[in-house]
Design goal:
The chain is mostly beta strands and 114 residues long. Helices cover 0% and strands 48% of the residues. The chain contains no helices and ten strands. A hairpin with a 6-residue loop joins strand 4 (34-39) and strand 5 (46-51).
Length: 114
């Protein structure tokens, strides 16, 4: 069965950095575009970043462009999200998802606070 396991979240001060990882299994990872979403308290889940199956094209939400970088390692079935210059508005639970599949992991909590 499809499994997505996010990790790397935590508490960080404004301006800090975190690197999230998502280990995928149960499907042909290298064939799917992968995405990162986040859900802030009291808000709807929103798309943060997307990467094509080969990693050649990456797109970002306007709110994170220039600060976040999505990448993937198809040999390790893992997608990453490098988050720099973090702001309090980046606080939320971060999820990875394979595009066109309906499975979600449990997410990893990122809290940006001084």
């Amino acid at each position: 069965q499809v499994q997505l396991v996010e990790s790397g979240g935590g508490l960080v001060q404004p301006g800090g950095s975190l690197r999230l990882s998502c280990a995928a299994s149960g499907f042909t990872f290298s064939s799917y575009w992968m995405t990162w979403y986040r859900q802030a308290p009291g808000k709807e889940r929103e798309l943060v970043a997307r990467i094509t199956s080969t990693g050649g094209i990456k797109t970002y939400a306007a709110s994170v462009k220039g600060r976040f970088t999505i990448s993937r390692d198809n040999a390790k079935n893992t997608v990453y999200l490098q988050m720099n210059s973090l702001k309090p508005d980046d606080t939320g639970v971060y999820y990875c998802k394979a595009e066109d599949l309906t499975y979600w992991g449990k997410g990893t909590l990122v809290t940006v606070s001084s």
